[in-house]
Amino acid sequence: MDKGNKMTENEEFIYESIFNQVRMGFLSLDEIKENILEEIEDNEFEDEISEQWANDLIDNEYQKVLTESEKWSKPTDTDRLITAFDELCKENIIALHNAGYTTSDGEYEVVQVEQELNDRRKASTGYCFYHEQDLSRAVITEDPSLYIAFQKINNSNVDVTIAVGKKVAEILKKNGFEVKWNEQATTKILIPDFKWQLLYDESNRDLLNYENVVELMTE
Questions:
Q1: 139-153: string of b/e by CB count within 10 Å (b at 16+)?
Q2: CA dihedral of residues 138, 139, 140, 145 (deg, nearest 10)
Q3: What is the spatial order of strands in the sheet that 93-96 belongs to?
Q4: Using CA atoms, how far apart are residues 58 and 172, in angstroms rounded to an integer?
Q5: Is residue 59 included in any domain, yes or no?
Q6: Given 70, 93, 121, which residue is the final one in a domain?
Q7: What kind and span of H or E run contains 135?
Q8: How far apart are CA 175 and CA 197, in angstroms?
Q9: What residue stretches are annotated with the DUF6891 domain (predicted)?
Q10: Has residue 4 been placed in a domain?
Q11: Domain total for the chain?
């Protein structure tokens, strides 16, 4: 990350949050500005960091991504991951984008989707997701990568877990990804050299609307 002039520790903390939120591409600039202002206030940085400083950084970072996006080769890794996750949903595996901030958050989101499926008299055969901490490793410029968690709800059978992992790995490979996984139930699947490339646009499909996952799985 090019931080330009030397920043204080607190400024670097806020900049990292700006960098991630802009480059993840899920939020509008107004939403990011609101989040960052709240973050500055929650951390009591107001005396050191002005709203104008933060807003300028947000605008500058967006312009960088906008310029970079003109040179992205299509389909991007992000495009191919979206396709892979859609295919997994059609294979009856819940596949969620940016599911919370931690693994436990992701597992909670999966259960919510499963309950929706159950209401429609359907049950998944497994699930996979990446969360925000995983995604933060995919937006960095050096050695980006993405980890994918997988399992089946209410399952303690190792063979069942591994079968889910194999299906997820198979679909990822089918969509052109290199996959690193030792076929162990307790190891996440790694996609090395995964570059998350998504520019926010209000016309983008909302990847965080998991109702779309339910629809794909009940078509």
A1: beeeebebbbbbbbb
A2: 10
A3: 93-96, 126-129, 145-151, 189-192
A4: 33
A5: yes
A6: 70
A7: helix 132-136
A8: 16
A9: 9-197
A10: no
A11: 2
Domain housing 22: 9-70
Q: Which residues of 84-122 are buried (b: 16+ CB within 10 A; e: fewer)?
A: bbebbbebbbbbbbbbbeebebbbebbeebbebbeeeee
Residue type, 129: F
How far is it, in rounded angstroms, from Cα 169 to Cα 95? Answer: 12
Q: How far apart are the first and last CA of the chain?
A: 42
Q: Do residues 135 and 145 make contact, with C-beta atoms less than 8 angstroms apart? A: no
Per-residue pLDDT of the chain (219 residues; tens, 9 = 90+): 444 568 999 999 999 999 999 999 999 999 999 999 999 999 999 999 999 999 999 999 999 999 999 999 999 999 999 999 999 999 999 999 999 999 999 999 999 999 999 999 999 999 999 999 999 999 999 999 999 999 999 999 999 999 999 999 999 999 999 999 999 999 999 999 999 999 999 999 999 999 999 999 998
Place of tokens 């909670």: 108
DSSP letters spanning 43-63: TT-TTTS-HHHHHHHHHHHHH
CA distance 122 to 114: 8
- The residue assigned the tokens 């080769």 is 73
Retrieve residue 36's tokens.
Answer: 């960052």
pTM of the model: 0.93
Residue type for 51, please? E
